[in-house]
Amino acid sequence: MGSDDTKKIQEMKTDLNLLLECLKYQMDNPFSQKEALVTIHSICQQNSNAGIYFREIGGLMFINNLAKSSEHSMVKEAALYTLGTIAEQNVYCQQNLCTSELFEDLIGFLSNNDSSTNLKRMTVYVILVLVSNNRTGQTLVRETGCITVLSQLFRTVLSEYEVNLSDENVFQNYQLWSSVCSTLCVCVNNPQNGENQVFCSSLFPHANNWLVNCMIPEIIRPVCSFIGLTLANNTQVQKYFVSVGGLDILSQVLVQLESDSHSSVSSAKLAVVVTKTVDACIADNPTFGVVLSKYCIVSKLLALLLHESLDSGEKFSIILTLGHCTEDCAEKLSLGEYSFDENEVKQLNDINMKEKNLGDFWKKAKEILYRIEQLEKEGNEEKIQGETFNNNVSSVSINTFDTLKQLQADGIGGDPKAEDKNKSQFGVTSTACGEDDQLKTLLKTANPVNACYRESERKKTLYKTNLNCNQNLLEETNTAERNCLSHPRSIYIMFRYNK
């Protein structure tokens, strides 16, 4: 370690020691305490080792006690936010804070009618950090009754389905509600927690009501995340969701969004979110797909698949859902049990033709694979075998690419201008065409709510929550008194880290 690094570490330690002393000796000055807390947060965010050192000198427990004992809401908020940030940065600090005593204190903040909305948001943020990727936290949030309080907030924070986000008070409540949704999501997954999933399933009827009565992205996205993660990989919870009409409601929302997608890109994107949630419900229970037949979901998904605004990842999610939809009863799902008008019949005929073309493509791919295998077995002379194989592979590649272009012209393969992208994505080579069985296995077993998806969503949730909390604190800090600390170096430290 160089001398410069050693010097920086020593400066960091000196600064944290001084700031901790400021917190202790400025108990009668909430503005100064808040300034110190925000500065500690900045230092720990810039240096992951700072949180460890701050814990070693007793700073973590002091802030914990300060959040509980301070009479000033601004100090409580800043203390909780700083605790959450340090725990998020360092797993040792997370484990150190993950106690039943702290969860009980957090319950007190959420249950107190005198607690401000912002204080409750900071409290929920700390719970999210303690529970995220931590089975111990998931257990404590249930055993202490904290998850019960979160569930109550989910039901009551937004009392009306008409959400006017331009109203400041409504927007503050919405932010709290959104944070509660995110926290409930990490209570049930990453790692998956079956007991918490069963508990949170009691909120399905309320979540369904939101989907029916408030079809805006700000509501649909968090509700679908909550539903999808709560029922993921849990057949018991999936059956309950279907029994309370959840799959019917998701289907109705999907049909409406697909219809709106013809004139709205945002509706198309939102329809994909609902599609993933549908898939999470039927992936382990293909028989549930019968529910979807009433809404001709397959034809809706095929129409959505052709939407130009969707990226490859979104289209792949639709393909996975189509695979699970058609796994148990393809014909029922495609046609349903209803009569159609002339336009609908034409649409279904077009879809059937595209499906037939796709089937022909797979048949041709199997023939190609068979020919390649035969070529590899034949010919004992190395020269003859090499020439024969190379000639046929070249012919096969051209034929396969021609077939894909024909599918593109029929609306299956996507934009012809994206030929190179399609070649790499769908494997348009003689060897890759033999992956029919692998793709079918993937469509059968893949679950969109997988570990990578959950980890990505968790990081986005933590970043978004952290960013919102940070913005609130910094806005309030800018109006605080900046010259209250008696020690000159304290003023310098705060200026340096918060400028």
Descriptive notes:
- The structure is a single chain.
- This protein has a domain at 359-445.
- With 499 residues, it is mainly alpha-helical.
- Residues 331-340, 392-436, 438-456 and 477-486 have low confidence and may be disordered.
- Helix content is 77%, strand content 0%.
- It is globular.
- The chain has helices at 3-25, 30-46, 48-56, 59-69, 73-89, 91-97, 100-111, 117-131, 135-143, 146-156, 168-188, 194-200, 204-213, 217-231, 235-243, 246-260, 265-282, 289-292, 297-305, 312-335, 342-377, 382-409, 419-426, 436-445, 451-477, 488-498.
- The protein has 26 helices and no strands.
Distance between the termini: 28 Å
pLDDT < 50 stretches: 331-340, 392-436, 438-456, 477-486
User: What is the general shape?
Assistant: globular
Q: Considering DSSP H and I runs of 4 or more, what fraction of the residues is helical?
A: over 70%
Total helical segments:
26
Count of beta strands: 0
Taking the sheet with the most strands, its summary is: none
Structural class: mainly alpha
Could you give the order of the helices and strands? HHHHHHHHHHHHHHHHHHHHHHHHHH
Overall pLDDT metric = 79
**Beta-strand content:** under 5%
Roughly how many Å is the radius of gyration?
28 Å
